[in-house]
């Protein structure tokens, strides 16, 4: 990866020009079905031109992003153009503002990036670039009081070749005895998807701690498959930390993940997974609750006790991969704060 940034000040305007070049190679020893080695090369050049202006009430950025990309089995020789708009309008008191963001981009997909999203993908992946035609967000942000902030926005995003994950079937003809072909590894597929929904965030800051509450809704429209697999419709997050006394702290993290669909190969016994039909299952919602109590002996030493996944004995996000049962940990920490 090679990138740079140039900035010019002209009167009340700031002009930013940012060129970059990215190059990736991915090599897999064997394809899941054919057993043949696979190697994918991809590169992308990008040039963005953004003009900015900042004032007391209205601040804005506008410009254009251009991408020229190449990937094996991907459309070559095409230049992609994306708008870039960032508007911020402040109230007279500057405690509230309305904002609008519009952008897009051409994103690389590689094994490392996809494995961060799903740890259980098979080490053989068909790779495609993801094209975000536009990502539009309109929101309102306000400081309700000195210590309470509120942020509400609605968004619409349009993707081409968005990566999704489905379960591979068991390969009964796995004569090379590769572990991931015995079932429950994930395959990466792609679909054109439109997302829309809203985000709500409340943050309360206090002298003795802070609390954050967030909700995200996600409505999906797919074009090739029946569902947007493993993408929940609702997510709720409630996290915080409180100073109970001068040396005692209490932290918590509660996450709710809504229902989502998974897809899998519905095989007959001894059937080759490549010829099996694709079937669907509805994965139930789940709560993940983590609590921690901490006592500080000094600025560097503290002792803690915490519980993880306290209310979810059979929680899971990915099909057939259960989270750990309720787990209790205690220990001693040292802060290397040089």
What structural class do helix, strand and pairing data support? mainly beta
Level of helix content?
Answer: under 10%
Task: Give helix and strand order, one letter per element, not per position.
Answer: EEEEEEEHEEEEEEEEEEEE
Number of helices: 1
Characterize the quaternary organization of these chains: single chain
Strand content: over 45%
Major sheet, described briefly?
17 strands, antiparallel
Report the radius of gyration as a whole number of Å.
24 Å
Number of strands: 19
Q: What coarse outline follows from CA principal-axis ratios?
A: globular
Report the span from N to C terminus: 31 Å
Write the layout of secondary structure elements.
Elements: E1 2-3, E2 6-10, E3 13-28, E4 38-53, E5 58-71, E6 79-90, E7 96-107, H1 111-117, E8 130-143, E9 148-167, E10 186-206, E11 209-217, E12 219-222, E13 234-243, E14 248-257, E15 260-266, E16 277-283, E17 286-296, E18 301-308, E19 327-334
Antiparallel strand pairs: 1-3, 2-3, 3-4, 4-5, 5-6, 6-7, 7-8, 8-9, 9-10, 10-11, 10-12, 11-13, 13-14, 14-17, 15-16, 17-18, 18-19
Task: Please give a quick description of this structure.
The chain has one helix spanning 111-117, and strands at 2-3, 6-10, 13-28, 38-53, 58-71, 79-90, 96-107, 130-143, 148-167, 186-206, 209-217, 219-222, 234-243, 248-257, 260-266, 277-283, 286-296, 301-308, 327-334. The protein has 338 residues and is mostly beta strands.
Short key terms for the protein model shown above:
1 helix
Structure overview:
The radius of gyration is 24 Å and the shape is globular. It has one helix at about 110-115, and strands spanning about 1-5, 5-10, 15-30, 40-55, 60-70, 80-90, 95-105, 130-145, 150-165, 185-205, 210-215, 220, 235-245, 250-255, 260-265, 275-285, 285-295, 300-310, 325-335. The relative contact order is 0.09. The strands form 2 sheets. It has a 17-stranded antiparallel β-sheet that branches. Strands 15-16 form a two-stranded antiparallel sheet. With about 350 residues, it is mainly beta. Helix content is about 0%, strand content about 60%.
């Amino acid at each position: 990866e090679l990138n740079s940034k140039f900035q010019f000040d002209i009167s009340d305007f700031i002009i930013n020009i940012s060129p970059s070049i990215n190059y990736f190679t991915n090599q897999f020893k064997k394809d899941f079905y054919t057993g043949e080695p696979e190697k994918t090369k991809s590169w992308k050049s990008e040039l963005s031109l953004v003009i900015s202006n900042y004032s007391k009430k209205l601040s804005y950025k506008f410009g254009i992003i251009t991408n020229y990309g190449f990937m094996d089995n991907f459309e070559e020789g095409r230049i992609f153009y994306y708008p870039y708009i960032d508007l911020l309008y402040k109230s007279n008191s500057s405690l509230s503002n309305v904002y609008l963001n519009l952008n897009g981009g051409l994103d690389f997909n590689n094994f490392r990036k996809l494995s961060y999203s799903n740890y259980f993908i098979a080490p053989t992946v068909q790779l495609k670039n993801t094209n975000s035609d536009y990502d539009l967000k309109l929101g309102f942000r306000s400081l309700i009081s000195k210590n309470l902030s509120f942020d509400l926005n609605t968004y619409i995003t349009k993707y081409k070749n968005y990566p999704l994950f489905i379960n591979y079937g068991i390969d009964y003809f796995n004569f090379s005895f590769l572990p991931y072909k015995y079932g429950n590894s994930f395959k990466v597929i792609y679909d054109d998807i439109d997302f829309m929904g809203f985000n709500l965030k409340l943050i309360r800051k206090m002298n003795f701690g802070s609390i954050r509450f967030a909700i995200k809704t996600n409505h999906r429209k797919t074009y090739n498959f029946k569902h947007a697999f493993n993408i929940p419709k609702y997510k709720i997050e409630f996290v915080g930390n409180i100073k109970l006394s001068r040396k005692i702290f209490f932290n918590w993290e509660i996450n709710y993940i809504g229902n989502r669909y998974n897809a899998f190969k519905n095989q007959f016994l001894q059937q080759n997974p490549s010829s099996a039909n694709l079937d669907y299952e509805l994965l139930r919602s789940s709560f993940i609750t983590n609590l921690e109590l901490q006592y500080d002996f000094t600025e560097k030493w503290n002792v803690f006790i915490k519980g993880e996944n306290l209310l979810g004995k059979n929680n899971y996000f990915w099909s057939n991969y259960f989270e750990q049962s309720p787990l209790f940990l205690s220990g001693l920490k040292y802060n290397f704060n040089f």
